[in-house]
Automatic annotation (TrEMBL):
Organism: Kitasatospora misakiensis
Family annotation (Pfam families): MurJ
Membrane topology summary: Multi-pass membrane protein
Region described as Disordered: 1-26
InterPro entries for this protein: Lipid_II_flippase_MurJ/MviN, MurJ
PANTHER family reported in the protein's UniProt record: LIPID II FLIPPASE MURJ (PTHR47019)
Transmembrane segments: 33-54, 82-105, 126-146, 158-181, 193-214, 220-239, 259-282, 307-328, 349-369, 389-407, 428-451, 457-476, 496-514, 520-541
Taxonomy of the source species: Bacteria, Bacillati, Actinomycetota, Actinomycetes, Kitasatosporales
UniProt superkingdom: Bacteria
Locations listed in the record: Cell membrane
Key words of the record: Cell membrane, Cell shape, Membrane, Peptidoglycan synthesis, Transmembrane, Transmembrane helix
The protein, known as: Lipid II flippase MurJ
Length: 576
């Protein structure tokens, strides 16, 4: 097996190698693992999201939407960029496949040197050095960074101070992302799922106790403190996982299963993640020229909108190690089946949330934020941006699903005996996601520049949605070119059914939410209408991602025994 899979450059896709049928008990065990892992991840992630929402509520209550919050949010660009690069995206894309390959090699040769420890020795020291350098560089370069991000900011001095504080997050974020990737590859999900609980608790503690004394600077200090808690939470579980298999005394013997670091594999992943995060830079840059408070409205809208996208991404967070192991073992069919399921399930969750936000955005914002310094005008502006942002939520979720297997085919380590890829086409294709994202940014900038003078923040949100949708379409094609034989007609057909159900649910939920002026009852009535309409329309249109959960609910209510739909996910389709 080689970690550098051949790339399909014109038309043909290599025939995936069939996996042997999995025995029933093993399938049941895998189904039980998926159900438990998803449950733990969902609960802790929901808790982290709830605490993050509480954090945003307190920011709105204490500081409103003004030049002070704009200054803090410009400084927050540092942890907002570091989090996807070092925790959620790039680090995970690199290290989960690397540890998955190491675990496959450990199973192939249990008496040889431990490949997992080889990966740690080869990567962790360099990572710590790079993170320390980046953190110090961001702190020292804060004035220039603020000037680049938001040249029209009303209070650049406050933004520089907050940026120097938030620059401290780079090192603990990177450590947390590395340790979380290693634990997930070992199928240990509890501690990684709890990192945002620790992070937001740290922010809340500092914000609640120090907001009157330090103002918006307390939020920046809370971000730095929360990042330290995040990394600290994972150290002990990581050491336990690393010590689960004693090191073998095979020093001096070069095993054929030894691993070699491929530093250049970092570049396409990092470029994609930074290019993806550049959408935020564009918003902050263009938004700094708009009236004070615009950046804050965009931030509050993004935080609410992305709750639905985050819920959908939870699915592939749990299944990503399974996809990475299948690819490391050369089982392209199992990887394809899993990715197709993830695309459908993530789309169902995200589109249900999108329909809800389209119908209930004003009442949701009023219910969550309209108190203290956050007034009705802020509510109206934020709700309007949410509705435009929501158009791009499906594309964001699909990119999150597709990019994981894409980068898994070229992990940051390879076996000693595997040939190093020299083919220019293969190397060029490594950069395909960054190129797709760059083209999406061109769309974002073009739409933003054309629409912002007339529509303000809504123009920026429209550019975001248009750009991310263009990137998702390009990545769907790129995943097939990479060598994972997705069935585009099947995938797109499923997405179309879910889109139709979501559009109908939003159309029915909007007038239902408008029947009452009370934010709570409006949200409940609109949300219930959207949920029922989405379930009915999805079932009628034949969306499997809707019918499966509904059947499970019916069985549960009727106490009719039947297989769990989550457990079914562990069974390979070719073994049914």
């Amino acid at each position: 097996m080689t970690t550098d899979q051949p790339t399909v450059l014109p038309t043909a896709v290599p025939e995936p190698r069939p996996a042997p049928p999995e025995p029933g008990p093993a399938a049941a065990r895998r189904g039980g693992f998926l159900a438990k892992a998803f449950g733990v991840t969902a609960v802790l992630s929901a808790a982290g999201s709830a605490l993050g929402l509480l954090r945003d509520l307190l920011l709105a209550r204490y500081f409103g939407a003004n030049q002070g919050t704009d200054a803090f949010l410009v400084a927050w660009t540092v942890p907002e960029t570091a989090a996807p690069l070092l925790i959620e995206d790039a680090m995970s894309f690199l290290m989960v496949p690397a540890f998955a390959l190491a675990l496959v090699l450990r199973e192939e040769r249990p008496d040889g040197p431990d490949p997992v420890r080889q990966v740690v020795r080869a990567t962790l020291p360099w990572l710590l050095l790079a993170l320390t350098t980046l953190s110090l560089g961001a702190a020292l370069g804060a004035p220039r960074l603020v000037d680049l991000l938001a040249p029209g900011l009303a209070d650049p001095g406050l933004a520089v101070t907050c940026t120097r504080i938030t620059a401290l997050t780079v090192l603990p974020f990177g450590v947390a992302g590395y340790l979380a990737a290693a634990l997930r590859a070992h199928h240990r999900f509890t501690a990684p799922a709890g990192i945002y609980v620790a992070y937001n608790l740290g922010i809340l503690v500092v914000l609640l106790t120090c907001h009157a004394l330090w103002g918006v600077r307390s939020a920046a200090l809370g971000v730095a403190f929360g990042s330290l808690l995040m990394a600290g939470l994972l150290i002990v579980p990581f050491l336990r996982a690393l010590g689960a298999r004693p090191a073998r005394s095979a020093r001096g013997r070069r095993s054929r299963n030894a691993l070699v670091l491929i530093p250049l594999a970092l570049l396409p992943v990092g470029a994609f993640t930074l290019t993806r995060q550049a959408q935020v830079f564009i918003e902050r840059f263009l938004g700094s020229e708009l009236p004070p408070g615009t950046i804050s409205h965009l931030n509050y809208a993004a935080k609410v909108s992305q709750l639905a996208m985050t819920a959908g991404i939870l699915i592939c967070t749990v299944t990503f190690p399974l996809v990475a192991r299948a690819l490391a073992a050369g089982d392209l069919r199992a990887a394809r089946d899993r990715v197709e399921k993830d695309l459908g399930q993530a789309a169902a969750v995200v589109l249900l949330g999108t329909a809800f936000l389209m119908a209930c955005a004003p009442s949701v914002v009023a219910l969550l934020f309209e108190r203290g310094a956050f007034g009705p005008r802020d509510t109206a502006a934020t709700a309007a941006v949410i509705r435009v942002y929501s158009v791009g939520l499906l594309a964001q979720a699909l990119i999150g699903v597709m990019i994981r297997p894409y980068f898994s085919l070229r992990p940051v380590v390879r076996r000693v005996g595997d040939p190093s890829p020299e083919d220019g086409g293969r190397r060029l294709l490594d950069w395909y996601p960054a190129g797709a994202m760059a083209l999406g940014l061109v769309v974002t900038v073009a739409v933003g520049l054309l629409a912002t003078p007339r529509f303000g923040a809504l123009g920026l949100a429209a550019g975001n949605a248009a750009g991310i949708t263009a990137t998702a379409a390009l990545l769907l094609r790129g995943l097939v070119l990479r060598g994972i034989p997705l069935r585009p007609r099947r995938v797109l057909g499923g997405q179309a059914r879910l889109l139709a159900a979501a559009a109908g649910a939003a159309a029915l939920g909007t007038p239902a939410a408008g029947l009452t002026a009370d934010p709570l009852f409006s949200t409940l009535l609109g949300g219930l209408t959207v949920a029922l309409a989405f379930a009915a329309l999805g079932t009628g249109l034949g969306a499997r991602e809707v019918r499966g959960p509904l059947r499970a609910v019916v069985r549960a209510l009727g106490t009719v025994p039947g297989p769990s739909p989550v457990a079914d996910e562990g069974k390979p389709p070719h073994g049914r």
